[in-house]
Design brief:
The chain is of the alpha/beta class. It is 37% helix and 14% strand. It contains 11 helices and 9 strands. A 5-stranded parallel sheet has the order 7-6-5-8-9. It has a 4-stranded parallel sheet with strand order 2-1-3-4. Helix 6 links the parallel strand 5 and strand 6. The longest helix is centred in the last third of the chain and has 20 residues. The chain is globular. The protein binds phosphoric acid mono(formamide)ester. This is Aspartate carbamoyltransferase.
């Protein structure tokens, strides 16, 4: 593939190939000298129309570890503020001959639209509620390293499924690799027709967490909620926030994940976020490795290679 726009459309063997490649990238990142020359002479631009801590910084570090020249475009001080459109902004950057453009945008489909208009490789770093493919890959890598495989794992994804590109990409990937996916949320935070994605749907944490090997908590995305949030944040934590009691409904060796950023005390108790079953910091390390793997895979399809 010339672009990485989503998990949808990737074959299981391609997903596993990226995870294997990421295992090698973990070794590179743990060395004192963390450099490979795969992208030497190549230019990577990170174009983020939405806020990011993990994704943007890990794409920058990943590109640099592979030898690319990486430029972070600051959208907040760009001519987007003067009314320049997404396509014009991308076409302007494209005229500077980048090889890879990493894009995050608040609209679903915006990254694919852009990929069709310009001639460099494009990676989706999150498009509205649609997909966040490298997040699902880093989550799968983290799970596989702890549980040995993805097939037949029971993964409970809990919380704001409605607004979550992380949930969508994870559901597609986990189904492709043969996991059993359960989603748990109040009805106001479930997209219509979610069952058609091949998941079991629960509203109670007690039922939903039964048999879970992995408990993946999602951030309550209040910035995407137009009106007031139902239930209230206090009720939400009481019924759907992961605390010690609710975690006890899952398997005794269940592991806890969260893509970040976390709302401590809203969807997760700090005691659990920082506790012995949490993989949240490790997910961040895997994020760099997976982004190195994705960049390396695209490098094989760049012209003159
Ligand atoms: N998980 C994730 O995408 O985090 P950022 O929004 O900080 O990039």
């Amino acid at each position: 593939h010339r672009h990485l726009l989503g998990i949808e459309g990737l074959q299981p063997q391609e997903i596993l190939g990226l995870l294997d490649r990421a295992e090698e990238a973990i070794e590179v990142s743990r060395q004192v000298e963390k450099k490979k020359a795969v992208l030497r002479g190549r230019t990577q631009i990170n174009l983020f129309f939405e806020a990011s801590t993990r994704t943007q910084s890990s794409f920058e570090i990943a590109g640099k570890r592979l030898g690319a020249d990486v430029m972070n475009m600051s959208v907040s001080s760009s001519s987007v503020k003067k009314g320049e459109t997404l396509i014009d902004t991308a076409a302007t950057l494209n005229a500077m001959h980048p090889d890879i453009l990493v894009v995050r945008h608040h609209a679903a489909g915006a990254v694919e639209l852009l990929a069709n208009k310009i001639d460099c490789s494009v990676i989706n770093a999150g498009d509205g509620p649609h997909e966040h493919p490298t997040q699902a890959l880093l989550d799968a890598l983290t799970m596989r390293r702890h549980k040995g495989k993805i097939a037949r794992l029971v993964v409970a994804i809990c919380g704001d499924i409605l607004h979550s590109r992380v949930a969508r990409s994870n559901i597609i990937l986990l189904n492709a690799l043969g996991a059993r996916v359960k989603v748990i949320a109040p009805s106001t935070l479930l997209p219509a027709g979610i069952e058609k994605m091949g998941v079991e749907v629960h509203s109670s944490m007690k039922e939903g967490l039964r048999d879970a090997d992995i408990v993946m908590m999602l951030r309550l995305q209040r910035e995407r909620m137009a009106g007031s949030f139902v239930p209230s944040v206090r009720e939400y934590f009481r019924y759907w926030g992961l605390d010690r009691e609710k975690l006890s409904y899952a398997k005794p060796d269940a592991l806890v994940m969260h893509p970040g950023p976390m709302n401590r005390g809203v969807e997760i108790d700090p005691e659990i976020a920082d506790g012995p079953q949490s993989l949240i910091r490790e997910q961040v390390e895997m994020g760099v490795a997976v982004r190195m793997a994705a960049l390396e895979a695209l490098a094989e399809h760049l012209p003159n290679k």
